[in-house]
Amino acid sequence: VSVLQQLDSFPGRHSALDPGGPQAALIRDRLWDPMYATAVVTFVLVVAALMWAVFRRRSPGEESDDPRREPVMRRAVGLAAAVTVVVLFVFLVADVAAGRVVTATPGDDAIQIRVIGHQWWWEVQYRDSLPQRWVATANEIHVPVGRPVVLELRSTDVIHSFWPPSLTAKRDLIPGRVNSLWLQADTAGEFRGMCAEFCGHQHAKMAFIIVAEPAASFARWLAQQRDTAGTPQDSLTRRGQEVFLGSQCPMCHAIAGTPAGSRVGPDLTHLGSRRTLAAGTLPNTRGNLAGWVVNPQRIKPGAKMPPNALSPDDLQALLAYLETLR
Amino acid sequence: MSTTLPPRAVPEPGRAPESVAELIPHLEETWKQPPGLWAWLRSVDHKSIGIRTMVTALIFFLLGGLEAATMRAQLARPENTVLGPDAYNQFFTMHGTTMMFLFAVPVMQGLGLYLVPLMVGTRNVSFPRLNAYGYWVYLIGGAFLYVMFLLNTGPDTGWFSYVPLAGPEYAPGKRVDVWAQTITFTEISSLVTATALIVTVFKNRAPGMTLNRIPLFVWAMLVQSFMVLFAMPWVATASQLLAMDRLVGTHFFNQAEGGDPILWQHLFWFFGHPEVYIIAVPGLGIVSSIVATSTRRPVFGYPAMVLSLVATGFLAFGLWVHHMFATGLPQLGESFFSAASMMIAIPTGVQIFCWIATIWAGRPRFTVPFLWVLGFVVVFIIGGFSGVMVASVALDQQVHDTYFVVAHLHYVLLGGAVFPLFGAFYHWFPKMTGRMLSDRLGRWQFWLFLLGVNLTFFPMHQLGLDGMPRRVYTYLPEAGWGRLNLLATVGAVTIAVSVVLLLINVIRSLRTGAPAGENPWGGETLEWATTSAPRPYNFPLIPVVNARSPLWEETGPLRGVAGLRTDVCDVLVTTLLDAEPDNRHRHPPPTIWPLVAALATGVTFITLIFTPWGAVIGFPLLFLGFFGWAWPHGRDHREQLSIEAERPVEAGP
Question: Which of A15, A46, A84 minimises the CB distance to B466?
Answer without folding.
Answer: A15
